[in-house]
Fold this sequence. Notes:
Elements lengths: L4 H16 L23 H5 L32 E6 L5 E4 H5 L4 E8 L10 E10 H8 L7 E6 L4 E5 H4 L5 E6 L2 E2 L9 E3 L12 E7 L6 H4 L11 E6 L5 E2 L2 E10 L7 E7 L7 E2 L1 E4 L7 E9 L5 E10 L21 E7 L2
Parallel strand pairs: 1-10, 12-19
Antiparallel strand pairs: 1-2, 3-4, 4-7, 5-6, 5-10, 7-8, 7-9, 11-13, 13-17, 14-15, 14-18, 16-17, 18-19
The structure holds the ligand Nc1nc2c(c(=O)[nH]1)N[C@H]1C(S)=C(S)[C@@H](COP(=O)(O)O)O[C@H]1N2 and molybdenum atom.
The site of ligand MTE has 18 residues, from loops.
Amino acid sequence: MSMDRRSFLRVSAVSAAGMLLRIDPLKGKESAKDPTESTEPLKPKQLKRDGARPETWITPNETFYIQSIDETPAIKEEKARFALTGMVEKERRYHLNDLKAMKPVKEYRTLSCIGDPVGGRQIGNAEWTAVRLRDLLKEAKPIPEAKRVVFNCADGYITSFPLKDALDKNMLLAYEMNGVQLPPDHGYPVRLLNPGKYGQKCPKWIVSIQLVKTEHRGFYEKRGWSDVAAVRTATRVGLPSRLDRLPAGKYKISGSAFDGGNYGGIEKVEVSVDSGATWNDATIWASASPLTWSLWEYEWEVESALKYARILARAVTRDGKTQTDKVEHAGPEGATGYHTVEVRIES
Ligand SMILES: Nc1nc2c(c(=O)[nH]1)N[C@H]1C(S)=C(S)[C@@H](COP(=O)(O)O)O[C@H]1N2
Ligand SMILES: [Mo]
């Protein structure tokens, strides 16, 4: 992954400022409240229509998307273990308690699905408690022939990637999600968080981590989906929704942008309310690192004479690239293009 130390430092400075300048949607003025405080689960009603915040900084576990090839496997506590095997000097079995005995890493990470269209809802951000896969691999000592790591899961899912990616310090084995034990649907006891990659490369219910020397293709990869599965820059308009009827006056358009850190993180977000003819800078009010989404909002003065509008949003990444407007429907590498939301305006 192309994320050097410098880009990390720059991003944290920007996100700190972003957090301090957050506009409180209720008071309509600047507030010093840290958006990361909002970890309480929202009531469903609030989630459906929450003024300026369709996306809360943290996606509550109860509403976090679930994408699984089969039923959620029921794994008992005594079976909460996995093996590190294959081309290593020291094979080992780990129980969940072995991971809990290690120094925990707590990080915010955004997860999104490669199969979603632009603006799709299968994206969420959580705080995860984890250990670094690299630390387990160092103990196991891969032999020189080892080239790839294969993850076998309790539901029969399987995926793999190069060993050098597995050694990335940001490759996490997570066992808690938003402060509680990993919920069964999200991979109890242990799931992977793969920096810069779509959810497909973040196996849940890990049973074994196996080092091999040969090429290997996983469940989705065999079915034509990308084997790299690198997150592409995408911006979602969360509010308003398609065909909403907006009253004239001030309206806060809001949403998220995410590049998985593959282009250095989100630098800025631009919003168009005139079908892409002109663009306005949105305010990014929350972001923690290039590995999390950036939440943004833009206050629009809605004119009743308009009757109808097409809203678009796009991101510019830190490497200076503007998100591509080329429309690619969820193909093997993930969807691209601008999310477009058409609304009606009350006269
Ligand atoms: N074992 C297993 N892991 C899996 C999957 C699966 O079906 N089985 N689906 C993958 C896909 S396609 C995605 S997008 C993410 C979704 O994670 P979530 O269900 O926790 O949101 O899990 C990934 N890991
Ligand atoms: Mo996915």
